Each structure stands twice: as structure tokens, then as C-alpha cells.
User: What shape does this take?
Amino acid sequence: MKKKLTFAAALLAASVLGGMANAKQLVYCSEASPAGFDPSPWSGGNDFDASSRTIYSRLVEFEHGKTTIKPGLAESWTVSDDGLEYTFKLRPGVKFQTTDYFTPTRDLNADDVIFSFERQWKKENPWFDYLAGTGWEYFAGMGFPDLLKEIVKVDDLTVKFVLNKPEVAFLPDLGMDFASIVSKEYADQLDKAGTRQQFTQKPIGTGPFQFVDYQVDAVIRYAAWDGYYGGRQKIDDLIFAITTDPAVRAQKLKAGECDIMSYPAPADIAGLKADPNLKVDEQEGLNIGYMAYNTTQAPFDKVEVRKALNMAVNKQAILDAVYQGAGQAAINPIPPTMWSYNKDIKDDPYDPDAAKKMLADAGVKDLSMKIWAMPVSRPYNPNAQRVAELIQADYAKIGVKAEIVSYEWTEYRERGKQKDRDGAFQLGWTGDNGDPDNFLFLLGCDAIGQSNYAIWCNQEFEALLQKGKATTDVAERTKIYEEAQVVFKREAPWLTIAHSKVFMPMNKKVSGFVMDPLGIHRFDGVDVTE
Amino acid sequence: MLRYLLHKLALIIPTVFGISLAAFAFVRLLPGDPILALAGERGVSPERYAELIERFGYNRPYVVQYLEYIGRVLTGDFGISLATKRPVLGEFQALFPATLELATIALIIAVLIGIPAGIFAAVKRGSWFDQATMGVALTGYSMPIFWWGLLLIIFFSGYLGWTPVSGRIGLQYFFRPTTGFMLIDSLISGKSGAFRSAASHLILPAIVLATIPLAVIARQTRSAMLEVLGEDYVRTARAKGLAPRRVIGLHAFRNALIPVVTTIGLQVGTLMAGAILTETIFSWPGIGKWMIDAIAKRDYVVVQSGLLIIALIVMAVNLIVDVLYAVINPRIRVQ
Assistant: This one.
């Protein structure tokens, strides 16, 4: 059997290397090189596209194009009444990929699941530090070290997660990239050979595509994995042509050098749409761009001052100048595509005269403040400097003098967290798992000093947030979060700026590509007509 | 000759230390923190941050960090990238052939066009050719590389469809690299059309990268030739009735060669600097793009070691140029 599999692997490598004459090939112009192919240590979208979404699978998966979950490597699961125990029944017969560097001798089992999490969790696990200085940021960032009590192997195909506290978003969390399941057998093999580093350079998973080759900073090649539990893909070869400049990516797409591209520059979208060979899919992004006031510093500790400043900003001008038609004004802290979005809430109207009067009524005269502008472009805010300039001009109309400040990106975020930060701070958020808590936690009391840049701890909002976390019924949670949004709008810790649209230009011969609300690029189910 | 060589080598040692210190200091002077940059936008807990800072030793005095770094470098250990966790030297070795190939072709273009253009401009001083050549050279010298590259892509690849947009070879050709030089590897691969594809991918980036060195070489050749053409021995040679081609080629050009060779040697540094932008535009997987990414990620190890390796290469090339002088002009050896 082993010989047969080795032969199959050799045959696959030879056929790929030789260039199969009639192979169906999809070329994706990606935006950056992956740091590695282990799906858990890194947190960049480009890392996930190249590893977790192509090579690996998870216990549960997000439905294609949605944020609802469906069975993945786990075919079913049960949750205990107290919400502390999740027991997963693994799908039998799931094969790890067979390549020229690894031939599995067994199917996926509970040991793989336990290993996948414990290597990120337990410092005594020999794989915890196999990459010097890995922080396992996503695992830690989602609160897993505190959340997990133990992971128990019930039998080969049954695994139980025991939690320290109930967590309603636990299942969607398991659909995230960091929770991808890796092969323990492969890890053991590398351990024996003393080549642990290879784990991230030559990956093995159970996903729709298997790794073939990576030419650093240039090209990643994958081949459809014949043994994929979800069925073999329609395309034979998947190629990532790494092209960092968006204008060059657009040119490559037009020239037919790639079939699909990520993140077009706003200025290129009209040209791409006009090309008869191309189509441009678009979708509301699961994101928000905002500006957080420091609610602990006078005069921003007064709700009426924050409201007045919100009313002074002409959001439409920002949408036109910065988002160039690829965004919509944000009203709530969660995007409209998210369940529990409160449609009844009205935005603060753009009314400079009323804003001026409100400031005067609040006893604020000759206000000078800082507006913080991110030094980088992000989907939720493509040009924070320009946004700051527009807000500065709007503020001038109501007699508020604003100075724009910016710092290097990591420094910017660190300074922004300081409790005595001076001024209003631009930032944004892109959803991880489609749960409203994944947005609203940004404003929780526990997040002060981390992601709560408004340094806002409102007991009413906090109580709703905690209640939502402890409630499993979706209808009930919806009500709780709708109420939380009312509190948010009333208290105005942020100026909610915009939710941006995401565009995906591709050749018309590409079919079956579904845009993902979580911003990942998945190529399972994609086909190319010749 | 040996003494001359030893003298040059003795000068290199303090320079290497100076550069290692500058590279070490440069990356630490940049605002930003490598651990936070590594953690990404979701950040890292204060406890884990403290652990990682301790582990990488970035909380120790700079002198200790530098001495440890230089100690490792002297044993050939350039460290492991903070971002990719791969050895820096290994990454460099994988990427450098791409840069070297591009820079070599660019230099060949610059020399093959720049020197004849400079000679003709000097010989036909004041003519329309001279003025046009020097005008184009000045424009080329002032051209922002990023804009120039994009312009060529849009026109030649997008509009005319003559050249590929970016990359090193057509994606239909897949073979594992033998030498890392795509022109050679494509020939070795034996795949029909591979060499042609690799060559066509080189055209635009090589032209873009060659633009500034070409302009500099053409201007330097012209000025050196003009100086030599005014010398007495050239007038004598002409008076003796030697053919103009022989006067220019044998008597004038050979003597004008010293400053031109110096200029060509100095262009190696320009090519390395130009490669950073050229590689970024053309998605050319070389060390220029690698360094830009490392700086953005505050990858201390890659930046400090990468800069040092690049500096060592530039110095080695300059040393070869110095030796070439001595071969061309024996008087330099004596001095």
C-alpha cells in the first residue's frame, strides 16, 4: 500500500513537473508572499489564502460565501447544556495529502486534532516553539489559552473540547484559519528526521489542494488533491503569481497572465470593468472604518461634544474622495451584512450649524485637537491621511482646530492605546468569524489598552455584551446586540466612517468563484472554461 | 601588485565593520518594534511580548546585541528571519541570482549602448546627435524608476502586447532551479520556448534598471573622450595621418577608459539600489523586493544581515574594478 502511494506521489510530481498537456490551470495574482505554509503562526490574509484555505481543512467550515458554519472534518457535534463541552465526531476516512515528501500511513484521527491545538497552547509541547519566537497570535488573540480547559480523545474519531466558560462564538472560532488541522504523523516524521522547519515549508493537510512548489516571492504551485474528502476539484493546477503592485496585477489580468486578482486599486476598477474579457465581482466588506474619541479626556468625555463632532463631518465627501464609490456610510459599529444589525438606528445628521451650537451649549470654545491618521492603507480605510484632511476641513467650519498626526504603523497602534492619548484616533476592523461579538468586543471594558481605542467602558453596553456572549439562542442574541447598538449610537464613542466594498476582478472564463465576506480567497469549487 | 591588493584589502576590513555597525544602528533607529510588527494588527499580550523580547535579546544593551551579532556573522551565521523563520543566508542565496541576472543584463545594456553613444557624442560634439544623446541621458537620469517601469508595462505589455507584464518566466514552464539564473536554467530544462520566455521577461525590467547607469556611462564616456581628444598625442596621431577610427578607438578611447571603468564599477551600487524599485514593480523575486519587505516588517535580522551582505558584494566588485585599473594602467600600481 505504502509503495503504491509513494508511486502515486512520484507520478503526481512528475506530471506536474512535466507540465500536463491538458491540465486545467487557474492563475491567481496574489498581493504578497506568504511568511510560511503553517496556517497557525501567522495572521495575514495572504498567509491564510496560501495555506489554510488551499491546503488545510478545519473541524467546521464556513459556508462558501457566508459566515454560517457547516460540518468540516467533524461530521457532527454535540454541546453540553452548560455550554462547556463540545464533542466532535470526526469524519471517517479523511486522507492527508500524499506528496513526494510525505506518505501518510493512516487517516485523520483525534490525535491530529489535539496536536493542532496543543502545539499552539501548551508551552511544554515540543512544537510550541518550533519556529523561533512564534506568538501564535491568533490563537491567543481569540482568547483560546484562557478558554480551553482540556481537549480529550474519547476514541480515534471522537474528540471533546472542555471549556473554562461558555463561549457562543466557539464553533465559528473553530472555522477560522488558525484552527486548521495539521498532521501529527507528519510532525512526528519530521521530529525523527530533525527537520521540524520543513513543517511550514512543505505543508501537508487535508484540504482541496496539495502543495507542489514555492519559488520564494514569485510563484506558488498547487495541484488538486485527489483524496480530498469534499471531492476532487475541477481545476488541476492552482498557481499563485505573487504580484505586489495592484496596478501591475491589473495589467497582468488584462494581458491574460492571470485569471483572477486580489485587491485592485480603486482607480483601476473602472478600467477593469470596461474590459470585455473581464468581470468584476463586488461585495460589501465585513469591516468598519472608524475614528475613536478618547472618552476619558475632556472635553471628549461629554457625549454632546462627541455627537457635535460627529455631526460636523460630511461623510459623503469622504466616501466620494477616498472610497471612490467603493464604500457606504457606517452608522453602527457592525456592518449591515452582519446578522443583528440594527436597521432602525439613524445616523447623526451632517449639520455643521447644529454641531456648532451643540459645542457652544456644552461650553466648549476654541477647541484644538489632534486627528490621528494611519500610515497604511487598509480595505476599511484606503487613505486615512486624506480622511483626516477632510475631517480637519469640516471641523474648521465649526471653529475646531485640528492637527493631523501619524506615526509608523506599530508605533501608531501602541500610542493609540495609551489612556492619556490626545485626540481622535482612526482605525478599523475586519471580521474574523461573522459573529457580532467579534466586532462589539472592540468596545468592551476588558479591551481597554488593547483594541478599545475609545477607552470607553459603559456599564450598560458592557452588560449587554456579556449577556450576548452567554446566550446561545440567536433570536435572543439578535435583540441583545440590537440594543447594544442603540447604546453605542447614543453614547457615540466613535465616529463611524464607512464600510468598504471589496472587488474581485477576474477573467470571464472563471466560474464558481464566490466572494467571501471574511475577506479570504478560496479556490475550491472554481472552474475555468477553455 | 600583491602589495597593492593587500593595501586595498586592508581598507575593506574597517569599512565592513563600519557598514555592519551602520546597518545594525539603521534598523534600530527606524520607528517601530519588531515584535509588534511580527504580531500583526491583532497585537500580542504583554506577557508574550516580554517573553519574546527576552528571547530575541532585544532588551539587552545595544553594545551586547551588536557584539553578539558580529560574533555570529564572523562564524558565517547571519541569523534567522523574524518574519519567515528561514535562515537569512539561505533566503539571500535563493533570491540573489535573480537580482544578479537582472543587474548583469542591465549593466550589459548600459555599457553596450552607453559607451558607443558617449563616444559618438564626443566625436560629433555640438551636433544634433550629441545634443539629443545628452538630452535623453539627462531625462533618463532624472526619470523616477517606479513611474518609468509602469509606463513601459502599460505601453509595451498592455497596449502593444509585445512583452510579458511581470515575473521571470511564463507560468507554463515549471522546473526546479539549477543555478538560479533563469536564462541558464531555462536552457538546461530543455523545454522548448522556455529560454525565449525567460528572455522576454527580462527585457522591460532590464531596460528600466539600465536607464540610470546608461545615462551616467554615456555622459562620463563623452566627457572623458572630450578631454582625451584635446590632448597633444591625439592631435599628433591625427597629424601623422592615422585613420580617424584608429585615432579614436586606439589612442583616445583606451586612455578615456579609466574614468569610464570607475563609473561602471560605481554603477553596481546604483544597480542594487535601482533593483529595489525595479523588482517591486516587475514582481521580480530578488533581494531588492526582499529588503523592502523586511524593512516594512521591521525584520531586524534580515535588514542588518541583508545590508551587510549586499555591501560586501558591492565592495568585492569595487575591489575587482580597482584591480582592473592596475591592469589597465600600471602607473596606479606604483602610486
Notes: Residues 1-21 of chain A have pLDDT under 50 and may be disordered. The first strand of chain A starts at residue 25 and ends at 30. The two ends of chain A are 37 Å apart (CA to CA).
